[in-house]
Fold:
Amino acid sequence: MSFSTIHGQVTTLVISVISFQIVNKVGAQTYENTKLLRENLLANYHRDIRPLVNQSEKININLTMYLYGILDVDSVKGMNTIV
Structure:
């Protein structure tokens, strides 16, 4: 599967989700609606296939975390409690 195919599938998924949100903006969603949406979005999803052309390459993941506060500092145990 080429990068352009994966990119096309991701683009289609994003457009589908955005379209669904625009069309169904009014009204509450039921559990059945949510379940059906998830089943439709993940119908062809396979956990073991990574989004890379070469499956042996590594995936770089960027993670951003924000420290909101420090609740407790225990200098004896060397532990901090953060939020």
Notes: The chain has a mean pLDDT of 76. Strands lie at 70-74, 79-82. The chain has one domain: 3-82. The first helix runs from residue 3 to 23.
